[in-house]
Specification:
- By secondary structure, the chain is of the alpha+beta class.
- Helices cover about 30% and strands about 20% of the residues.
- The strands form six sheets. Strands 1, 2, 3, 4, 7, 8 and 9 form a seven-stranded mixed beta sheet that branches. Strands 12-13-14-15-16-17 form a six-stranded mixed beta sheet, with helices on both faces.
- It is globular and about 85 Å long.
- The protein starts with 5 loop residues before the first helix and ends in a 9-residue tail after the last strand.
């Protein structure tokens, strides 16, 4: 008998497989997305690729596969063995959910039209009246695994109650087979171009999870199905980092797990695994992140600032500039001056919240540095004393000794928020636009949820691979982090919309408790501000209305589909 508790079983990472079916449409490459039922415990209402967990019985079908053996497939998937089981699971799930089967009969033909395996056979499989193996044997079908190409792998990060280790495959949709959603797990489908899917996602009309977004972006790089499959067969994806990385913490050697906050940073700073990078943020410590780029964290840790505000010093021995000097803390600012040998020509701020910009005036008084940024808006928590000498424009480039910085106006968290992209290093200084391990607060009236999501989407079009945030360590898989933030916000917005439709008119406080039922009581105050930001966005889109009775939906519950 197993000693694994129910909690441990819930936390166990389950092997899973997903199959992206593609075809060449009239306007270019199209991909099949299935919409999950709103009653699903996992990703309700989301559009996904066909797929699901690997079953123990999938291994029994190894005798029915052709085109690849388990040794070859496992090598491609970076597994010791069992690689074909993932492909078999992907084909089985595609039949169950979408009514499409990639299989060959004795003459090498694919099932078409109303082939019994696609109709009665599929229904018997869904009702568990037969197995996938028995179904294939009864109809004399074999599984051509050489039609599938491997696109990547995604392991659910720690935290969610359900975690999956999922391999993503791609295949050309078989001609002559129509998509028939099963009507229980899957309620709708769409053949759609990647560009249209991403646009629908950004508008909040199609919910897509981060792994789906990442795969769509890869697919979207190719003009035709043939080009995509040729790439997939010839270029197996790089295995996801799965082993701990050696580092230092409090002067002693340690191992940093792949999902730990410091992982991307210690890998970047110590690629040869010499345990020289630090896995902790210490106020005042100078950390060289790239040639001519140093981070120094201010001693202002807290619930809203994490380990402290990060100040970045860019330059060389002759000239330096500072991004986000932080609060007016003399010790922190003296440290920046010392590292710059007293030569600071410019101070750039991402925004004027009091944990980011007050040190700018202090540095200007000591060095004569020019202050660069946008004026503070009216409101609490703003550094009203900040007066910029220069107001940069969106898209403008600023020359520095460390390379060219591209200015990106990113309103949402604050109306005057800027990000700075060091193009030569593909390094984005994100201020509070993207934070590590924390949701960015969107606090109306200056905070604007619609502007925030739009700015995140625009950032996703820029060329960078690492984010240097205003608080915390470097963030790797930068575009994935942005996709995750957009997905998180739109998923929360949908909960707000459902609460409106089912319980409105209702007060802001009531809607917050319903839409943020997973947020601890201690954080309900902040959740209320975020809920208001979502409601104001929905009001501007005519999907919510406010009256003396409270907030109500501007749309019917039946219309809440993506």
């Amino acid at each position: 008998m197993s000693n694994m508790s129910q909690h441990d079983r819930a936390k166990r990472i389950r092997p899973a497989a997903t199959l992206a079916l593609v075809r060449d449409g009239e306007t270019g490459l199209e991909v099949l997305l299935l919409q999950r039922t709103w009653q699903a415990a996992f990703l309700p209402g989301y559009h996904v690729f066909p797929g699901g967990a690997v079953d123990a019985g999938d291994a029994d079908l190894r005798a029915l596969v052709e085109g690849r053996d388990d040794g070859e497939t496992s090598q491609v998937l970076s597994l010791d063995e069992g690689g074909v089981d993932y492909m078999i699971a992907a084909l089985r799930e595609c039949l169950e959910e979408a009514g499409i089967l990639l299989a060959r009969d004795a003459e090498g033909a694919l099932p078409t039209g109303r082939h019994p395996v696609l109709a009665e056979g599929r229904e018997a499989l869904r009702r568990e009246q037969t197995s996938f193996g028995a179904l294939c044997e009864h109809h004399g079908l074999r599984l051509p695994l050489d039609r599938l190409a491997h696109l990547g792998r995604w392991v659910t990060p720690p935290g969610p109650p359900r975690r999956f280790d999922t391999h993503f495959f791609v295949a050309l949709a078989p001609p002559g087979q129509g998509v028939v959603p099963d009507g229980s797990e899957i309620i709708d489908h769409a053949w759609i171009s990647v560009a249209h899917a991403l646009q629908a996602h950004r508008r909040g009309e199609m919910a897509l999870s981060y792994p789906t977004l990442r795969t769509l972006r890869l697919i979207g790089d190719f003009p035709t199905a043939e080009a995509l499959l040729r790439h997939g067969h010839a270029n197996p994806p790089t295995p996801r980092p799965g082993r701990p990385w050696p580092a230092q913490r409090q002067g002693e050697a340690c191992q940093v797990e792949p999902d730990a906050p410091a992982y991307a940073e210690v890998r970047r700073l110590d690629p040869n695994r010499h345990a020289t990078a630090s896995a902790e943020i210490v106020p005042g410590r100078a950390v060289t992140l790239a040639p001519g780029v140093i981070r120094v964290s201010a001693p202002n840790p807290g619930a809203m600032t994490g380990p402290g505000t990060n100040s970045y010093l860019l330059g060389d021995g002759r000239e330096h500039l500072v991004i986000d000097p932080g609060p007016e803390d003399p010790g922190h600012l003296e440290r920046l001056l010392a590292l710059a040998d007293g030569h600071i020509s410019h101070v750039l701020v991402t925004h004027t919240h009091i944990d980011h910009s007050p040190g700018a005036a202090w540095l200007k008084a000591r060095t004569g540095a020019r202050l660069v940024g946008l004026p503070p808006p009216v409101g609490a928590g703003q550094d009203a004393a900040f007066v910029p000498d220069y107001r940069p424009r969106n898209g403008e480039r600023i020359a520095t000794a460390a390379g060219t910085l591209k200015v990106l106006h990113t309103p949402g968290h604050a109306s005057n928020h800027l990000c700075y992209l060091l193009e030569s290093q593909r390094l984005l200084f994100s201020g509070d636009q993207v934070m590590q391990g924390s949701t960015v607060v969107i606090n109306p009236p200056d905070g604007d949820m619609a502007a925030y999501i739009t700015a995140l989407s625009a950032l996703g079009e820029e060329d960078f691979d690492t984010i240097a945030p205003g608080h915390g360590f470097l963030i790797g898989e930068a575009h994935g982090a942005i996709d995750f933030l957009i997905t998180h916000r739109l998923a929360r917005e949908h909960k707000v919309r459902l609460a409106l439709s089912r319980h409105g008119p209702a007060s802001l406080e009531t809607l917050t408790r319903l839409a943020y039922d997973d947020v601890p009581e201690a954080k309900q105050g902040l959740a209320t501000r975020s809920a208001l930001a979502h409601l104001l966005k929905l009001e501007a889109e005519e999907r919510a209305v406010q009256s003396e009775s409270g907030w109500a939906s501007g749309e019917a519950l039946s219309s809440l589909v993506y």
